[in-house]
Amino acid sequence: MLALLSRWLHIFLSWWYFFLCTSFPEMAKPEPIRRAQAELPQMDPREFEKHFTPRYNPWEQRLCVCPDGDFFGAIRAGRLTVVTDRVERFTEGGVELVGGGEIAADLVITATGWRMPCDPNEFLASGMVVRVDGEVVDFGARVMYRGILFDRVPNFGWVMGYLNASWTLKSDLVCEYFCNLVQEMDRGGFVKAVPATDHEAMRTEGILSNVFNSGFVQRSERWMPRQGTRAPWRVNQNYLKDLYLLWWRPVRDGELLLE
Length: 259
Fold this sequence. Notes:
Shape: globular
Number of strands: 12
Distance between the termini: 42 Å
Order of helices and strands: HHHHHEEEEEEEEHEEHEHE
Radius of gyration: 22 Å
Number of helices: 8
């Protein structure tokens, strides 16, 4: 019982904080900054503002959490230095910055400016080419159904977790739904399950465009699947909504064709 209560408490708290950040960003933004300041009392205020007050609101881009404070401890101990700037170019000895100066480096881990290496013929850079009736599927033009299946693509599902909570929280729901779908097909003697929608008439948007404004999301939007404006064509970042959509909503909902 305690484990169950703890599970639901963490689910609720993560949902509540995401809701607070996205609905009332000006109210939510000062708290993580205040906590970071408390960890770095000796840092010059101008330096702190430069490095730890981002131009975007919480959860407009990924929110990094350091529960044990080891990151801040390394800064206080002088083992780690933070530099906030844009990269001008790579040099023989490291990285040259737009603001001037150069960071010497033996090893550079690239993250900023990352571009998803998508081939339009591949399924999300997986190296896998999906064909229906001999034609290559362009997933950037397909709408997701229940956040799992794709319109006009039979018997094909994608496991995608949450970006604002535990990834496996949704992965578990996705796998259970897919097992229920297979069992429903077995009971009815069906061999094909395909979501059907009037794709051209439905207003759509990227599956991440309503969550993040990160550069890598914007650059890869052309290759990412689409989502609609209503269930079950909406990709949720909400466990309670998905609990209904994937557990309680009947498999046969009038928008999934079984043949």
